[in-house]
Structure formats: structure tokens, C-alpha cells
């Protein structure tokens, strides 16, 4: 798929494609079919959409030309150079699974699966990985994702010394830039760096907020079929990208402030201290910091 990643982690899969909380029972009744038929149609349609994505690259890693446009757009906003995409994890609330339910309890004390997304300046996903248990930390989710593997083996391109940006849940590297941890002793330049990084990084939170605002069933998936959960989440992201590509933005029916606040509440983390950071990653971050206008 042209180096793109649309993967379902572990054995997991996600939920309904409607933009309301309508139950399958009422949908089945309206169209005079059984509930199991509805599930079958949804599953077959989702898998067909993944085939469409594989053929047309609706979710895909950017080409060099696309990457340059993304970097230029982010840099125009706050002078922060080289941003190829923004990365973060998001929780999809689910019913308690029948097997190993405690593994799916996150730090907000509800059952969930995790979705790791990378988006561009248009809030379109360029990489997605879904299905790991909600108890997993974002940094561990990244380590388990095939994006991490492809970065390590060099099969994804970071054009012109570009990088992703993420929050403090991630470990600093030359391909993933994070801010300085604030222990009350940050310099003015470090504070400025964090401010400009976060001004761009918020786009992945916006992307997830728009995704869940458009496909509201992703807020709570009432099914014990974990094999469906990731599949439908990824399918929703494919449709999310397709809508944006065709100029259909969710602004008219999504309260972004409300969705964004919920997204931040669900993804609040205790990042902790990361050690053994590579010297060249530190140097790259310092070079960016010194180049940023105050």
C-alpha cells in the first residue's frame, strides 16, 4: 500500500458507521432484515473499503511532494520546521471483553481499545494502527506498531530531515520530536519551543475529535466482538479522509471544542521521564529551538 500503514493490532477490530447512536435493532427493523444481516453487511462493506484504500491510498504515507506541502503549511503557522505529521493515541470505549477484561481498562477506569494515528496539516490520517488494549501506554503502543518497525528499518521516508511531533508520552528521536518536560526550570527558549510545537501537535487531537464527531458510534462501541472493533475504526478513518478529500468537512455538525475536550480528558497521561535519549535527537531539537523566533 505504498508504504502506508492501516493495521489492526493483535486480534482486534471497531464499531458502527452511523453518525448517531441508533441501535442495530432499529436499523434492521427499518430495512426489514435481521440484526445478524446488518452486522454481516457492515463487516463486508468495511473490508471492501479497506480494499479500496489499498488500491487508491486514501490513508497512506505522503509522497515527497505531499510531504513538502505539509511541512510548508505547518511552518507557516508557527515557524516550526520539518513537521511531516502529528502523532497521538486515542481511546475507543468498549464493553468489557469476555477474556482478559482488566487488560482493557485504561487509566480513566473504562474499557477501551487504542488507536494510534498520524495526521497531516489537513487533519487527514497518513498512518493508523488500531486494536491494542486500553491499558497500554502511548509509548508502548508506538513500539508495538508497524510504523515504529518501518521507521527503524528505513522503509518510511522522512524527506528533508523531517519528523513527526508528539507529546511527552513519546521518546525523543530524530524522527519524532517532543517538547521539554516542564519541571519548573524551563528557559524562555524552551517554553517558546513547547508552545510552537503544541500549536501544531494539536492537529492530531483535532483529527480524532472530528473522526468521533462524524462517526459518533466510535465514542462507545456496544459489542463484545473485539474482532470487529479495530476493523470499523479503521474504516471510519478511511471515510473521514475521503470526506475531507472531497471537501466535506464536519464543522457544520461537530462541536469541535466539546469533542476536543473529551478527547483530551480521555487521553490525559503521565508521561514520565525518558532516559538514554540519543545525542543526535537532542541536538536536532536544540537546533530547532534556537532557530525559532521568540
From TrEMBL:
GO CC terms, sorted: nucleus
Keywords attached to this entry: Hydrolase, Metal-binding, Nuclease, Nucleus
Required cofactor(s): a divalent metal cation
Name of this chain's protein: DDE Tnp4 domain-containing protein
Cross-referenced PANTHER family: DDE TNP4 DOMAIN-CONTAINING PROTEIN (PTHR22930:SF292), PTHR22930
Keyword Ribosomal protein: no
Domain DDE Tnp4 stretches: 87-241
GO molecular function: hydrolase activity; metal ion binding; nuclease activity
Family: Belongs to the HARBI1 family.
Source organism: Photinus pyralis
Localization: Nucleus
InterPro entries reported in the protein's UniProt record: HARBI1-like, HARBI1_dom
